[in-house]
Amino acid sequence: MATDWEIKGREFVNCNCAYGCPCQFNALPTHGDCRAVIAYQVDKGHYGDVRLDGLRAALIVSWPGAVHEGNGTMQVVVDERADPRQREALRKIIQGEDTKEMATMWWVYSAMSPNKLETLYKPIDFEMDLEKRTGRVSIPGIAEMSGEPIRNPVTGNEHRVRIDLPHGFEYEIAEIGSASSSVKGQIAMELKNSYAQFCELNLSESGVIR
């Protein structure tokens, strides 16, 4: 019997696509492939009777084409502060286990990633301001990510854009910005001034809680 779970928290994403992120519009990736680093802050959550409040996690992913074409590689990073049961709970959630088919982005990422690397347990520094569209993530030796608002190329003023997905499997509304990342290890990538996403998450094994 599947374990019930729920997460309320925040997500900061940086992928290699242009600011619009074609994935959000059922279009093909800007450069033909998809690479991303994603960080999560769990403000309140549980997996069965295991509390997850205050923990963090990250996901590093790469696909040779569009996500739905598969053959991806993924690696989960779990907050080293988590105890053994919390570590396993976060790993299962982010690898799409105990989740209804197609219910969350994690289920899709996992289904499209036959190449699953060993889960890492590391310190994760996470800062994100949804309204200001800023963020910073540091996983020593693994990933560094920073995000800021998109700026008008003529005036330099901040340019605010949001994506509204009433029937999405990740979020309802996301603030869009610009981010840069440096990722080391088996899924190395260098991203510069590309798509950034800042949003609140409220997910369960059945999908987005609305």
Structural overview:
With 210 residues, the protein is mainly β. It has one domain (5-204). It has helices at 84-94, 105-111, and strands spanning 5-15, 34-47, 50-51, 56-63, 73-79, 115-116, 120-122, 125-129, 134-139, 143-148, 150-151, 158-159, 161-164, 173-183, 189-204, 207-208. Strands 1, 2, 3, 4, 5, 6, 7, 8, 9, 10, 13, 14, 15 and 16 form a 14-stranded mixed β-sheet that branches. A two-stranded antiparallel ribbon has the order 11-12. The mean pLDDT is 96.
Any chance you could write out the topology, listing elements then pairs?
Blueprint: E1 5-15, E2 34-47, E3 50-51, E4 56-63, E5 73-79, H1 84-94, H2 105-111, E6 115-116, E7 120-122, E8 125-129, E9 134-139, E10 143-148, E11 150-151, E12 158-159, E13 161-164, E14 173-183, E15 189-204, E16 207-208
Parallel strand pairs: 5-6, 5-7
Antiparallel strand pairs: 1-2, 1-15, 2-3, 2-4, 4-5, 8-9, 9-10, 10-14, 11-12, 13-14, 14-15, 15-16
